[in-house]
TrEMBL record:
Top-level taxon of the source organism: Bacteria
Keywords tagged on the record: Metal-binding
Record's keyword annotation contains Metal-binding: yes
Protein's recorded name: DinB family protein
Protein family according to the UniProt entry: Belongs to the DinB family.
Protein's organism: Halomonas lysinitropha
Record bears the keyword Zinc: no
A Gene Ontology molecular function term of the record: metal ion binding
Length: 191
């Protein structure tokens, strides 16, 4: 863990680390794509592309980090940039993801907000919900993994081979490791 993360709370540092691992995996995949593969349309109406899912993930991180940077009273994931460049050009998306990783690392260098408020639109009103940095970091990991699982399915249809662990939540990876260790232990007892 980096020195800046060591100054943050242990739980925040662990959540930042999960996000960093998730984003590094996504960035690695995106950096290897051609613009044509990144933009290839899927689905009955052609609305799904790898790039749109990547851009959507980026938008959510930017919404949180931009809100924290400007000390926003309310974090609002609905008011996203939706920068089409990031869904059209994989190298620019990979670069932006690297920037997000650097911004996440900086979360540990200063005081973290004790409480956050989250705007949640409901019909013609917006609810303001109590939240925290840790809760939002946990959300971003799960949200990103969800979209990465969709990306993995789309990539598979294009013949793009991804690691078995791509789009798998860290809790599932920990479960797999535990099950593998238990199986190895069991095998030693029966051998």
């Amino acid at each position: 863990m980096t020195s800046s993360l060591s100054r943050s709370s242990p739980s925040t540092a662990r959540l930042v680390e999960e996000n960093l691992l998730t984003l590094a995996q996504l960035r690695s995949m995106v950096a290897d794509l051609t613009p044509e593969g990144y933009r290839q349309a899927f689905g009955e109406h052609g609305r799904h592309t790898l790039g749109k899912h990547v851009r959507h993930i980026i938008d959510h991180y930017d919404a949180l980090l931009d809100g924290l940077d400007r000390d926003a009273e309310v974090i609002d994931y609905e008011q996203r940039r939706r920068d089409e460049v990031l869904e059209q050009w994989p190298q620019q998306a990979a670069s932006h993801l690297a920037g997000i990783e650097a911004r996440l690392l900086s979360l540990g260098s200063g005081p973290s907000p004790d409480a956050l408020s989250l705007g949640y639109p409901l019909d013609d009103d917006t609810l303001t919900l109590a939240s925290s940095l840790n809760r939002e970091l946990a959300f971003l990991t799960s949200h990103s993994i969800h979209h990465m699982a969709i990306i993995a399915l789309l990539a598979e249809q294009s013949g793009i081979h991804l690691p078995e662990t791509f789009g798998v939540h860290p809790s599932t990876l920990r479960h797999w490791q535990q099950a593998s260790a238990e199986q190895a232990s069991l095998s030693r007892w029966t051998a």
